[in-house]
Amino acid sequence: MKRFQNKIAESRRTLPITILYGVGIWLLAGLTHQGWWFQFACFFASVYSMIHLNNINLLIRVYSRSVSVFFILLCCSACWLFPSTQAATELLCTVLSLLLLFSCYQNQDTMGRTFYIFLLISLVSLLEPHFLLFVPIYIVLMATTVYSLGIRTFFATLIGLITPYWLYAGWLLYLNRHQPEMVLTYFKRFTEVQWNTDYAVVSTSQWAYLGLLIVLFIVGTIHFWITSYMDKIRVRQIYSSFIMLAVYTIILMAIQPQKYDMFISMMTIAVTPISAHFFTLTRTRISNIFFIVTIATILFLTGMNLWTLLSVS
Asked: Residue ranges per domain, the chain?
């Protein structure tokens, strides 16, 4: 028997309605009068990339757009990130890197795509050096779930990481031809990275959003472990990758809560398909109630964060 959650998850109207909802949230937040067009373009490019990620990997074994739908809903809940060009760039580059990563499944001859994966990570790290902390988990995923790590792909990761810094250093040298030592002032920021733990910088609404993601992650992961035998091996490996990414991100957030805004994007991306898998493929009364409560919580958090954002601006 199809319950409310299944009708919503499997409906062809759900995604267009959710896209309109996302546009509405951006307009209410101040898209037009604040001029957040770059951030908005990155957001919807990320949505399109998530749609493509779902389509080419068949993440859910029935027709459903719930991966993209939950991605839009969760991202709009974190509307305090809307003004940040850094957060928008990180979101898009992360989704694209994962799209490329999973396209390398069981193929150790994907040096070009591997190069671009780590090129994207390196580009984000030019804005936020802490993003390089995701390099180890990507390499682990290549070795354990994607099975694309080889000698040549490993060197492709190194070249991809080095290339943006090499090009940017050359640009800085060109701009400071008479003072080449100025190049070193930019790279000093890596030695000034703070490793102290300060939980006070995370607001109540941010804790609430993280709590929602963790609950969705735990429930979705348990369901996936129980029912994963029904999915194809490739799909199981992709979901295992998302689970490992989420666990790794939670650990990083516990160590570096002051970088909450950077880590929360990765957490959102990792939890989205796990929660979509759960709500689409369960048909129990309890899961239906949990779905309604989840949607209500998402809408409440969106309204609360939107009110806070408008009050500040």
From this structure: 4-190+201-312
Mean pLDDT of the chain: 91
Radius of gyration of the CA atoms of the chain, in A: 20
Helices 135-144 & 151-175 angle (0-180, nearest 10): 160
**Do residues 62 and 281 touch, judged by C-beta distance below 8 A?**
yes
pLDDT in tens, 165-221: 888 888 877 777 767 666 666 666 666 666 678 788 899 999 999 999 999 999 999
In 3D space, the residue among 59, 35, 246, 42 whose CA is nearest the CA of residue 137 turns out to be: 246
HSE value, Cβ hemisphere, 13 Å, CA-based, for 221 = 16
| Residue 84 CA to its chain's centroid (Å) | 15
User: Torsions phi, psi of 47, nearest 5?
Assistant: -60, -45
What is the number of other CB atoms lying within 10 angstroms of the CB of residue 186? 13
**Digit-coded pLDDT (tens) for 45-102:** 999 999 999 999 989 988 889 999 999 999 999 999 999 999 999 999 999 999 999 9
> Whole-angstrom Cα distance, residue 154 to residue 205?
40
How many residues are given for the chain?
Answer: 313
How many separate helices (H) and strands (E) can be counted in the chain?
14, 0
Burial class (CB in 10 A: 0-12, 13-18, 19+), 67: buried
Tell me the per-residue pLDDT of 210-219, one tens digit each, with 9 for 90 and over.
999 999 999 9
Q: Which residue has the tokens 């979901």?
A: 239
